[in-house]
Amino acid sequence: MATRIQHFLLLSSLALCVLSVEVQAGQNLPTAQIINSLTPNSPKVTLRVASGNNIYLGEHHLSVDEIYKFKVEQEKKYYCVVEWQQYFTSWPCFELPRDHNQEFLYWLMKKEGIYRWEKADWVLESPWKTD
């Protein structure tokens, strides 16, 4: 009987340790901010965000200067797809190892395409495409 109780306590402690590690790992994941910085009076863009692990954050319609934010919840690749007038583009808005140890990820929509904030400058990540 004492052995069963010891095994139960040991397994319970191990399970709590595993849960604690998972929570701490998730706390290090970044928040992504996608900013519509297109020219004034541009029509709204349609943004969709999803991960490869059945996470779909929905469809969002952003006006100029509007920001969409989301918290990365899993260490899986997240993709963004944007449509603007006759243009569209897609890019990985979170992926490892590129985004390891980042607190925030910044993405900027401009007339040339999607820019990523890297260190101290905006870098063109994904130009607009047409059919």
TrEMBL record:
> One biological process GO term for this chain?
rejection of self pollen
Primary location group: secreted
Keywords of the record, alphabetical order, are:
Secreted, Self-incompatibility, Signal
Q: Which residues, if any, are the signal sequence?
A: 1-25
- Listed GO CC annotations: extracellular region
Q: Which cellular compartments is it found in?
A: Secreted
Similarity comment text for this entry: Belongs to the plant self-incompatibility (S1) protein family.
Entry protein name: S-protein homolog
